[in-house]
Design a protein that fits this description.
The protein is an alpha+beta fold and 264 residues long. The protein is built from eight helices and six strands; from the N terminus they run H-H-H-E-E-H-E-E-E-E-H-H-H-H. Strands 1-2-5-4-3-6 form a six-stranded antiparallel barrel.
C-alpha cells in the first residue's frame, strides 16, 4: 500500500543519514537493536500492530508507530516460522565457533547430480548470515540465536562414495549480552527466518526519531502525503541542475539528467 511504502521510505532517510555520517559497519544493524528483537521473540511477546494513519501531525508519533509495527511484524513472522521451519541441522560449539557437520546422502546419483546437490546444500548454509535460529538441546530448548557469521568449508565427493559431509562454521549471539552460539554444547538448530531487514528498519525508525531526518522536506511528505511540498530541485537550466549533482560519486547519463531537470 501507499502508506507501507512510506514506511520503507522513512527507513531510507535513516540509511542515507548513516551513510553521510560514515557508519563504520556499512549499515548493519547495531547488536543492541538485534538483541532487543530477539528478547521480545524469545519471551513470545504478542505481535501488537498499531493503526497507521493517513496524516501525522507530529514526527514522534509517526516514527514510534513505524518502529512498533516493524517489531510486531518480526514477532508475527517468528511465531509463524516456529510452526513451519523447513531447515534443521545439528552442531556443537568449540569456544571459537559453532561447528556443523552435515551428512549428505548421494547414493544412486550421477557425478553431476552429486555436485548439484552439494551446491544447493552449500548455498543454503551460506545464506544463514542474519538469520534467526531456534535451538533445541540441554538447557537451550526454545532459545533464539542471531547468526552473525557463516563459513562453508569446501566439500569434495570421493569417487564411488554414497555419502559425504559438509562442514560449516557459524557464529552468533543470543538476547543475553554474554551468551553466544560458539559456547553451546550439542544443539539442534531450526532456521526461522532472515531477519536482517527487520533489524535495519527497526534501527532506522529508532535513530531517525532520536537524531532527526537528514532531509526534512522528504520527512514532511511522509507525515502528510497530501501536502504539496516544493522539492530541493527547483528547476533552472540543465547546467545549473547538473552543478548540484555529485556525479563523481554516482555518474548519470543524459536521459537521467533530463529526468532530474524535469523535477519541479
Amino acid at each position: 500500500t501507499f502508506r507501507s511504502n512510506l514506511n520503507l521510505a522513512s527507513c531510507s532517510i535513516a540509511q542515507a543519514m548513516y551513510a553521510r555520517a560514515g557508519c563504520r559497519d556499512g549499515g548493519e544493524a547495531a547488536p543492541d537493536a538485534r538483541r532487543e528483537l530477539l528478547a521480545a521473540a524469545e519471551c513470545q511477546e504478542p505481535a501488537s500492530f498499531r493503526r497507521v494513519e493517513d496524516i501525522y501531525r507530529d514526527r514522534t508519533t509517526y516514527y514510534e508507530t513505524m518502529r512498533a509495527n516493524v517489531r510486531a511484524e518480526f514477532l508475527d513472522c517468528v511465531a509463524e516460522s516456529r510452526r513451519s521451519s523447513l531447515m534443521r541441522f545439528s552442531g556443537q560449539g568449540s569456544g571459537d565457533t559453532f561447528i556443523v557437520v552435515e551428512p549428505v546422502d548421494v547414493a544412486g546419483l550421477t557425478a553431476h547430480e552429486k555436485q548439484e546437490m552439494m551446491t544447493d546444500k552449500q548455498s543454503a548454509f551460506e545464506g544463514l548470515k542474519d538469520n534467526v535460529v531456534m535451538a533445541s538441546g540441554l538447557g537451550c530448548n526454545g532459545k533464539l540465536f542471531w547468526i552473525t557469521s557463516c563459513e562453508v568449508q569446501d566439500a569434495r565427493i570421493a569417487s564411488g562414495s554414497t555419502s559425504m559431509t559438509l562442514r560449516v562454521e557459524l557464529k552468533g549471539f543470543a538476547a543475553e549480552k554474554y551468551s553466544s552460539l560458539e559456547q553451546q554444547q550439542l544443539l539442534i538448530l531450526q532456521v526461522l527466518l532472515f531477519a536482517g531487514d527487520f533489524a535495519s528498519r527497526y534501527r532506522a525508525a529508532t535513530e531517525v526519531l532520536l537524531e532527526g531526518a537528514g532531509t526534512p522536506e522528504l520527512e514532511q511528505a511522509l507525515l502528510n502525503p497530501r501536502k504539496c511540498i516544493e522539492g530541493t530541485y527547483r528547476g533552472g537550466t540543465r547546467k545549473s541542475v547538473a552543478a548540484r549533482l555529485h556525479t563523481k560519486v554516482m555518474p548519470i547519463n543524459d536521459d537521467q539528467l533530463a529526468a532530474i531537470h524535469a523535477l519541479k
